[in-house]
Design a protein that fits this description.
Length: about 260
């Protein structure tokens, strides 16, 4: 039986990954800060699917968090076959006016924890010549987004980093996939402090289950990148190829202004 470690498994897309993988008889390691939610999910999945589920309660913005997570898996004798770096958050608003500490924490979670966890688990996968890593980015990765400046930049990092790793690791039998969902029905928008009026503008919103299905299918195919969501999401990811960057970012500034 294989084992998947999922960060941000207490809700949204991470929880949907946990449910889908559990149904496929994959043992799980669930990581997030909300102990009660994680324990409840673990119990539910253990009972329903008779799998092993470990819980690691961790704030991944803490220094050495990835190291601590790795050490727990090691002390439990767990081999991680699939790492899903899913935990992340956004912050809507004018960068100069938003809380600075929150911007730094976003970089710590969306980028640093993801790089660090990847670096903890990847060498072992290469030694075994098997394993997979899914990094959750966003369609926000494909262009700068005013009023989501740090978030879009953090997801651009994840996209670029993951595509490089995909190419570096194919020869070692390790799959790297970057998932780029469009708008998805989770707590993301509330957490990011999006104004109500704004979330109403989103035309097509996917379910976390749709994102997970698209992502796991792409992993099976050995793709480097998967964009899930509406046709519009797929168009958005290609706009920067055809529209001059200044024009595009000016249009987006108007679009994303509250
Ligand atoms: N929803 C969308 O429209 C959308 C679109 C594209 C990409 N994404 C990406 O999808 C991923 C999952 O987001 P979601 O939409 O499922 O949002 P969500 O429902 O808010 O889930 C975020 C998850 O991250 C965890 N998390 C947040 N801060 C953490 C920290 N400091 N340490 C450890 N875990 C932390 C949360 O758990 P705790 O609070 O328990 O720690 C939660 O499990 C994110 O990377 C997001 O950027 C979302």
């Amino acid at each position: 039986m294989s084992t998947a470690l999922i960060t941000g498994a207490s809700g949204g897309i991470g929880k949907a990954f946990a449910q889908k993988l559990a149904a496929r008889q994959t043992n799980l390691v669930l990581v997030a800060r909300s102990e009660e939610k994680l324990n409840q999910l673990a119990q539910e999945l253990q009972e329903k699917y008779k799998i092993r589920v470990d819980v690691i309660v961790k704030d991944l913005t803490e220094t050495n968090a990835a190291n601590a997570v790795f050490d727990v898996t090691k002390s439990q004798g767990l081999t991680i076959d699939l790492l899903i770096n899913n935990a992340g958050f956004g912050d809507y608003g004018d960068f100069a006016e938003r809380d600075g500490e929150r911007q730094v924490k976003m970089v710590q979670l969306n980028i640093l924890a993801l790089v660090d966890l990847t670096h903890q688990f990847l060498p072992l996968m290469r030694q075994r010549r098997s394993g997979s890593i899914i990094n959750v980015s966003s369609i926000a990765a494909f262009q700068p987004i005013p009023y989501l400046s740090v978030y879009a930049a953090s997801k651009a990092f994840v996209l670029s980093f993951s595509e490089s790793l995909w190419a570096e690791n194919r020869q070692y039998g390790v799959r790297i996939l970057v998932a780029c969902p469009g708008p998805t029905e989770t707590d993301f928008f509330t957490e990011a402090d999006f104004p109500q009026s704004f979330t109403g503008k989103t035309s097509k919103i996917s379910t976390p289950e749709e994102v997970v299905n698209d992502t796991l299918n792409a992993l099976e195919r050995g793709d480097s990148t998967v964009v899930s969501g509406s046709f519009l999401s797929k168009i958005i990811t290609n706009l920067s190829r055809f529209v001059p960057r200044e024009t595009l970012v000016s249009i987006l500034e108007k679009q994303f202004k509250a």
